[in-house]
Write a structure and sequence with these properties.
Strand order of the largest sheet: 2-1-3-4-5-6
Helix content: 25-40%
CATH topology of the largest domain: Rossmann fold
Structural class: alpha/beta
Low-confidence stretches: 1-6, 512-518
Number of helices: 15
Bound molecules: 5'-deoxyadenosine, iron/sulfur cluster
CATH superfamily of the largest domain: Methylthiotransferase, N-terminal domain
Number of strands: 19
CATH architecture of the largest domain: 3-Layer(aba) Sandwich
């Protein structure tokens, strides 16, 4: 894109003044305005031959065929929430007239960042260096940063000072505003920064573009009120806010009408869903309503905080035909003393008895977890308690993390930080234990026929597909791409530790809303 444009900067103020105040109307208005500006630039570039130089013939043809006026690339770091946010951001960019590019050599490059551990931050700074060199080649390229990292003041300061080529910065509370922020950047010089400290606002009904046509994440709540002492999430994602259950049901119904058969209900702590609503409803109550949606076949959710996991939820899971037999139940530590320091509000014994209760009610449940090694003050005995829980629970898989000191959290100022080499040795021991158990546990269905959602064409073996069992274990089996997005019966021939090799037994398992196993 060149700088010449029919868009006059002096128009910008009038356009802003005339924008509707209400959302989402306001954003649809800016989407339209951004489209107009991009189209004018693109048409001028096509006429002058600039566009051919910029994109090459193949990409230019794709742009012209799809009626787009530029390219975009989103890179997502971190959790499922960010992945879902990126689908929303992608939806907005496409409505603005951008087409997804295969690489970061694009007109609009967006990093949706994570700040839960320091590594994630470092990766972003590293990649910004590369983007700067790209931008030198294509000065009209726009670079935008959003997500949890941008909610930290010192991060934004650093970018303002040392990464001045960045065009737009926004946070976790206003992703719905992307079109307006692009408009602002197009209509003035300099970096546009719009980071909110918090919000009560939940803007519904904006465009989204799903990664998979047959499955989707669905936010049911935002933020977190737990303040685990190591965790930065409550500071960057704000206070807990639940979406109205009507809105959630409406969204899932329209997803199902659009071909979705599996949903993942998303929240930092789904077990406290509904507490802040005017008409309170429990998470189990919400699940009962979601279960009734005809055509929906699989329901997943994450994350569950052990302290809030109710008997009602266990019952609903036990009786459900659609809720997957999988619970992600973060342990963090097996030591009651460390758990107290972490502000987790359960003890080792309470966690273990909860696991017993769940396993008794739902014997085929798969349990997965998150564990942090090296929290300040963790002794060898504390660590052994964690190993003990791992051996007792026998998780299908565990995400293990080395404790990362996050500025601003209470744990960061605790004095007794554990030396790096000690942490590393414990981490390796834990990983070995977790993997050995996981290899045994994951293979327990070998020799049986199970329902699999065919999700992807296998990149490594020609003619093979990759899918997932209800309990989330991966299965590879021979099959054609026409099966993608369908539930099929697969014989699990062999377990290879974390995944199965299987054989297709029956295609198109139609299932049903009522009695059949879904
Ligand atoms: N250091 C290491 N791991 C952390 N997590 C959250 N904060 C930190 C931290 N400061 C882990 C927790 C959480 C997961 C998403 O990330 O285990 O469950
Ligand atoms: Fe962080 Fe704890 Fe909230 Fe999870 S529950 S997001 S670990 S504060």
């Amino acid at each position: 894109m060149t700088k010449e444009t029919s868009f006059q900067l002096s128009d910008a103020e009038t356009i802003k003044k005339n924008a509707p105040a209400a959302e989402p109307e306001r954003q649809y208005y800016f989407i339209q305005k951004v489209r107009e500006i991009l189209r004018a630039r693109f048409e001028a570039d096509v006429a002058s031959g600039e566009a051919l130089k910029r994109y090459g013939q193949e990409q230019l043809d794709r742009l012209l065929e799809s009626g787009s006026f530029g390219t975009f690339c989103i890179t997502t770091f971190g959790c499922q929430m960010n992945a879902r946010d990126s689908e929303k951001l992608q939806g907005i960019l496409e409505e603005c007239g951008f087409l997804e590019a295969p690489s970061e050599d694009a007109d609009f490059v967006l990093y949706n960042t994570c700040t839960v551990r320091e590594n994630a931050n470092l990766k972003v700074y590293g990649r910004l260096g590369y983007l700067n060199s790209q931008k030198k080649k294509h000065p009209s390229m726009m670079i935008a940063l959003c997500g949890c990292m941008m909610q930290e003041e010192q991060v934004v300061e650093k970018i303002r000072k040392s990464y001045r080529f960045v065009d737009v910065i926004f946070g976790t509370h206003n992703i719905f505003k992307l079109a307006e922020l692009i408009f602002d950047r197009l209509s003035k010089k300099g970096m546009v920064v719009d980071v909110w400290k918090g919000t009560d606002q939940i803007v519904e009904d904006l465009p989204t573009d799903r990664k998979y046509p047959f499955k989707s994440g669905v936010n049911i709540m935002f933020g977190c009120n737990n303040f685990c002492s190591y965790c930065i999430v409550p500071y960057v994602r704000g206070r807990e806010r639940s979406r109205e259950s009507e809105e959630i049901i409406k969204e899932i119904e329209s997803l199902v009408a659009d071909g979705v058969i599996e949903v993942m209900l998303l929240g930092q702590n789904v077990n406290s869903y509904g507490k802040t609503l005017e008409t309170p409803i429990t998470f189990a109550g919400l699940l009962r309503r979601v279960e009734k949606i005809e055509g929906l076949r699989r329901i997943r959710f994450m994350t569950s905080h052990p302290k809030d996991l109710s008997d009602e939820l266990i019952e609903v899971m036990r009786d459900s035909k659609k809720i997957c037999r999988h619970l992600h139940l973060p342990l963090q530590s097996g030591s009651s003393r460390i758990l107290k320091e972490m502000n987790r509000r359960y003890t080792k014994e309470q966690y273990l008895s909860l696991v017993d209760k769940i396993k008794t009610a739902i014997p085929d449940i798969s349990l997965t977890t998150d564990i942090i090694v090296g929290f300040p003050g963790e002794t060898e005995e504390d660590f052994e308690e964690t190993m003990d829980v791992v051996r007792k629970v026998r998780y299908d898989s565990a995400f293990t993390f080395i404790y990362s000191r996050r500025t601003g959290t209470p744990a960061a100022s605790m004095e007794n930080q554990v030396p790096e080499d000690v942490v590393k040795r414990r981490f390796d021991r834990l990983l070995e234990e977790v993997q050995a158990i996981s290899a045994e546990v994951c293979g327990r269905d070998t020799g049986t026929v199970q329902e699999v959602l065919a999700e992807e064409v296998n990149d490594h073996a020609e003619g093979f597909l990759t899918g997932r069992l209800g309990n989330n274990t991966v299965v590879h089996f021979e099959g054609g791409p026409e099966l993608l997005g369908t539930l099929v019966d697969v014989h699990l021939d062999e377990s290879r530790g974390f995944y199965y090799m299987g054989t297709l037994v029956k295609k198109e398992n139609q299932g049903g809303n009522d009695n059949e196993k879904a």
